[in-house]
Amino acid sequence: MCKWIECKISDIGTVVGGATPSTNIHENYENGTIPWITPKDLSTFSGRYIQRGERNITEVGLKNCSTQLLPKNTVLFSSRAPIGYVAIASNDLCTNQGFKSVIPNKNIDPNFLYYLLKYNKERIEGMGSGTTFKEVSGNTMKNIPVYVPEDKKVQEKIASILGSIDDKIEENERINNNFVY
Q1: The whole model's pTM is what?
Q2: Core vs surface per residue 29-38: b (16+ CB within 10 A) or e
Q3: pLDDT tens digits for 15-64?
Q4: GO terms for molecular function, please (predicted)?
Q5: In which domain, by residue range, is 17 found?
Q6: What is the CATH number of the domain that holds 57?
């Protein structure tokens, strides 16, 4: 039997916030090739893996703000407006300030982390603070307690089972979207 350990999000990955380059500087966006994700991009997104959002930024835009290029398999988690959209980066990309993304440690399966954050969405949302709209701070995200199987193979098996269910749901959505009446 596999041992599950209690830890914090910061024990299983690096929590990273995003930022928005100034929209008044055209060089930040014009002919940009770096995928830049906002919570709005995830509002209509139903898959698990995301490649790009509505807009891209340029190298100049990347350097002109505090966002950073997140590696493939980073788990994106919207931390405001609203809290709880989750996706996995299928390539290097960056996000706006509406995210507290988690770059998983080597001993953490990114797909397991995706399901772990989805499962804990309501609990994380309840930890948000703010008057105009709720937001989860980086510090709050880092300190969220979770239970994780110590063995990465067990994490992978759990994620595989959940993933096969999501694969079927996604296939059914594709069929339904292509069905002509």
Answers
A1: 0.93
A2: beebebbbbb
A3: 999 999 999 999 999 999 999 999 999 998 988 999 999 999 999 999 99
A4: DNA binding; endonuclease activity
A5: 4-178
A6: 3.90.220.20
